[in-house]
Amino acid sequence: MTRTAWYFEDFYVGQEIPVGSRTVTEEEIIAFATQFDPQPFHVDHDAAAASIFGGVIASGWHTCSMMMRMVVDSVLGTSSSMGSPGLDKVRWLQPVRAGDTLTVSYITTALKPSSSRPDRGVVWSTWRAVNQHGEVACTIEGMGMFGRRPKEDGDA
Question: E strand or H helix at 90, and its extent?
Answer without folding.
Answer: strand 86-92
